[in-house]
Amino acid sequence: MTTHTIALGNDSNTFTVGDDDYLISGGDGSNTLTLGNGNDQLTLGNGNNTLTLGGGADAVTAGTGNNTITTKGAGANTIRLTDGNNTISLGNGPS
Predict the structure, then answer these.
(1) Which residues have a Cβ under 8 Å from the Cβ of 20 and sit 6 or more positions away?
(2) Where are the domains of the chain?
(3) Which pTM value belongs to this model?
(4) What is the pLDDT of residue 44?
């Protein structure tokens, strides 16, 4: 798969992408991101983030905020969150 790099900036963003590998970085903003199957790396700043990730080895780092993260399918997931009210639902891969 091809790795796509996306810089979100400090705005609030909503988008859905298909199966592929993504390297996503964002500043402070509230983001709703839906990604297909692939090995994804997300680094997000402070904000209320809702992430839905398909199967794959996903790495997520998010700052202070109310974060909801759902991973589906098999894949080794690494998730690091700081202060805030966080909800995490993981698929059937190692975490």
Answers:
(1) 1, 2, 3, 4, 36, 38
(2) 3-89
(3) 0.90
(4) 95
